[in-house]
UniProtKB/TrEMBL annotation:
GO molecular function, one term: 4-deoxy-L-threo-5-hexosulose-uronate ketol-isomerase activity
HAMAP family, per the entry: KduI
Taxonomic lineage of the native organism: Bacteria, Pseudomonadati, Pseudomonadota, Gammaproteobacteria, Alteromonadales
Positions of Zn(2+) binding: 199, 201, 206, 248
Cofactor info, note text: Binds 1 zinc ion per subunit.
GO BP annotation list: D-galacturonate catabolic process; D-glucuronate catabolic process; pectin catabolic process
Keywords attached to this entry: Isomerase, Metal-binding, Zinc
Enzyme class: isomerase
Record protein name field: 4-deoxy-L-threo-5-hexosulose-uronate ketol-isomerase
Annotated source species: Alteromonas australica
Family of this protein: Belongs to the KduI family.
EC number per UniProt: 5.3.1.17
Gene: kduI
């Protein structure tokens, strides 16, 4: 068994307002992803969304079902999965078909595709697969999304310290999905704010996975209600679970990138409620 599993129950905004720092971190921060030789999963009760990782080294890793949470014969029996590689070159095999994934390339795995295997080309420079999964009602074809297939948005400006490229990888204008959406945002040199204005998605949840952050650097991730914000200091290759009632934005002490993943009511990327800095407390 290569799986490590953690479960996070849904927490309301009133309860979260009373949490201290450790309680907030235990509820919303994923600190132990990208474990060599393991498939790691966190099962959340926000939209039944799952986030995880697979880091194969000398031996390939199989995507196994999780008995207590899924109660299904195989992982994708009723789920779709998104994969983004942030490490060295690797291969993901799905139902006998192999997909080579380079750095920052993605793969969508549709419902019903059994026998998913993750491997690395070089154990000394392993692939590091970041994983998201959501329940699926329909089976769509698997699809690799490389640099040329991604839809790229250039947002922000140097003057507001949030100039960034948003690489939309697994969204409905690029690949057919049931509800899962994923992409990668990279800040330009000198920019540190990742999302401004801050916003929330009342109709879906979102998870931010931060990476390419120096060991001595941190991202201060803001969450909570607009009038009652909280913050978490996040290290490299850690993720923050953002409930539908919570805003999300962050500022770093150095350069970094992050992967965003969403699931919920609809596939409208722009379905968000924005709050300018003047509205935050």
């Amino acid at each position: 068994m290569n799986n490590k599993i953690d479960c996070r129950y849904a927490i309301g905004k009133k309860e979260a307002n009373a949490y201290n720092t450790n309680e907030l971190r235990e509820a919303f921060l994923a600190e132990s992803l990208m474990t060599p030789g393991k498939v790691v999963w966190i099962y959340t009760h926000y939209e039944r969304f799952m986030l995880g990782s697979a880091v194969p080294t000398t031996t390939p890793l199989t995507l196994e079902t999780i008995e207590d949470q899924l109660k299904m014969p195989f992982f994708t029996a009723r789920r779709e999965v998104g994969v983004i590689n942030i490490g060295g070159p690797g291969t993901v095999e799905v139902a006998g078909v192999s997909y080579d994934l380079g750095n920052e390339e993605a793969l969508y795995i549709g419902k019903g595709n059994d026998n998913v295997v993750f491997s690395s080309k070089d154990a000394n420079n392993p692939a590091k697969y970041y994983l998201n999964s959501a329940p699926a009602h329909h089976s769509y074809p698997c699809k690799k999304i490389g640099e040329l297939e991604a839809n790229v948005l250039n947002l922000g400006s140097q003057s507001t310290s949030n100039e960034r490229d948003i690489k939309q990888l697994i969204i409905n204008s690029v690949v057919d999905t049931c509800q899962l959406q994923m992409g990668l945002t990279r800040l330009k040199n000198g920019s540190v704010w990742n999302t401004m204005p801050a916003h929330q998605h009342d109709r879906r949840n979102e998870v931010y996975f931060y990476f390419d952050l120096g060991d001595d650097k941190r991202v201060c991730h803001f969450m909570g209600e607009p009038h009652e914000t909280r913050h978490l200091f996040v290290a490299n290759e850690q993720a923050v679970i953002s409930p539908p009632w919570s805003i999300h934005c962050g500022v770093g002490t150095g350069s970094y990138a992050f992967i965003w993943g969403m699931a919920g009511e609809n596939l409208d990327y722009d379905d968000m409620d924005k709050f300018p800095p003047s509205a935050l407390r």
